[in-house]
Protein: Glycosyltransferase
Amino acid sequence: MPATPRPAPRLAIVVPCYNEEEVFAYCQQELSALLYTMVQDEMVQPDSFLLFVDDGSRDTTWEQIKAACTDESHVQGLKLSRNEGHQSALLAGLAAAAPQADAIVSIDADLQDDIQAIRRMVEGYHAGYDVVYGVRECRQTDTWFKRTSAEGFYRLMAAMGVRQVSNHADFRLLSQRAVNGLLRYTERNAYIRGLVPLVGFPSTEVHYARGLRTAGESKYPLRKMLALAMEGITSMTVTPLRLIAALGFSICAVSLAATFYVLVMKFTGNTVEGWPSIILSIFFMGGVQMLSLGIIGEYVGKIYLEAKQRPRFHVESFLQNPVKNLSQL
Ligand code: UDP
Ligand code: MG
Structure:
């Protein structure tokens, strides 16, 4: 059960944007309207705000964010110096919002996630939860391929012991202390949805139906989806390395049995021309070794990247409005 109920928070809604010129205006309008009604209903403080993170877009996204910051006092904009990817952009936004907010909701710019669920997330915060996961009820609007591959991925992750909320992406509410906890994970290869459960604190879920992208195309092509899945596995678990060891062990055991069989055949005078089996086993072993080296290489690569302690992102500009009071609008 969560801790004691809490008063209305100063809420920040963080939106990573990469080449989102087609959806930005709609997104800003919808989220502003939502924020406004929540202020009126006294669910959140009047100085709550939206924070758009421009992840090195090459279109007019940043110009639009800048204009919104000028026109609207409840809008903030953060520009990264280059495209760092969704996870880093989100972390940059969380880091910028945390010192100014009691609760932070993260949502994608295309508003595929139902923004009304944010109200229920805030209610979760009021009830004392530090983490409120947005969970997709059905994925009918996703393509068959995206749905099936995502389900397979969640199953694979669970089988390897990674705790992760199924059908939850990066639509969630975090309290200030949960964000600060998350930011203490300084690894370069951050897989946020695997890290949040590790931070702990009372958590709950809010279910919603996911819609279609309002405009523009997905910024997650298959290549980026696979990269995220790989990132998720190799940065959260060493199970694949253990599987390699287990595989190696079983192959050794099988070879031992096979050697025994061959010796028996030899001494009973039943030896045969065995080149197909030899060739096959060479190929098979070669394959197993290459695969194993590849997986080990992936982890070694991770160590290499972590050892360099490179910064996760650089902020090019941060537009923070001095006056952020929605009730004065
Ligand atoms: N995004 C980002 N950097 C990237 C790719 C995506 O900040 O390199 C943002 C994008 O603007 C959107 C969110 O991440 O707000 C999720 O992307 P998208 O909606 O295209 O993914 P999908 O819903 O197709 O998985
Ligand atoms: Mg989307």
About this structure: The first helix runs from residue 24 to 40. The chain has two domains: 11-236+311-328, 239-308.
